[in-house]
Amino acid sequence: MTGPHDMGGVLAGPVDLNDHATFAQDWHARAMALTVASGSLGQWTIDRSRHAREVLPRYAEHSYYEKWINALADLLVRQNVVSREELSAQTGAPSPLADRRLTPERVAPVLAKGSPVDRPGPSPAYTVGQRVRTGMPQNVHISGGHTRLPAYAAEKTGTITAQHGCQVLPDTNAHGLGEQPEPLYTVTFAATDLFDDATPGDEVRLDLWQSYLSPA
């Protein structure tokens, strides 16, 4: 099954190159603020939040911030932060997570700190300059689960052009199976190897985990 991150190379019509406001409507800013603030509650990982967006029904029919706010609502209910009834009524009992709320004065330092995902882990099996081949874009831990290998790069050969140490594996982290860190690499592909109508000389660079790769 293909997902939203498999859309590379899909004909999507003309691209509007005009400048756009960061938030075209007031509720767009609130949707982003709610998503960031809710993340500070510590009830899900960034990988789980990405997966919540990509499995939304009728994904392509939602606008950008509709995806954010609908996925957030699903996460809040799924993690028992609020009930569907409380969400619909926009009211509820005081939450035991209230002391973890992201207050205005904490926003800047929290965002500046970020959330590092580098971890101790296995030694890298590949080196810069080595040719590698990708596998199939499937989560081997959870059927139909989250993965960062897009379908358009499945079973393709590329060259490792950078190493990024060991980082949290999204395939497990999105499903509560632990971080299971692996070496992460930038793999560079000739665009013509991925897309039939690509311009010769163009490249596509993907950050891919070690378990996605095998020696070419």
Layout of secondary structure:
Elements: H1 26-39, H2 46-54, H3 64-78, H4 84-89, H5 104-113, E1 131-134, E2 157-167, H6 170-173, E3 182-190, H7 191-194, E4 203-209, E5 213-215
Antiparallel strand pairs: 1-2, 1-5, 2-3, 3-4
Could you explain how this protein is built, in words?
This protein is of the alpha+beta class. It has 2 domains: 24-90 and 99-111, Orthogonal Bundle (Cyclin A, domain 1), CATH 1.10.472.20; 128-213, Roll (SH3 type barrels), CATH 2.30.30.50. 29% of the residues lie in helices and 16% in strands. It is built from 7 helices and 5 strands; from the N terminus they run H-H-H-H-H-E-E-H-E-H-E-E. The chain has helices spanning 26-39, 46-54, 64-78, 84-89, 104-113, 170-173, 191-194; strands at 131-134, 157-167, 182-190, 203-209, 213-215. The chain has a 5-stranded antiparallel β-sheet with strand order 4-3-2-1-5. The chain starts with 25 loop residues before the first helix and ends with a strand. The mean pLDDT is 90.
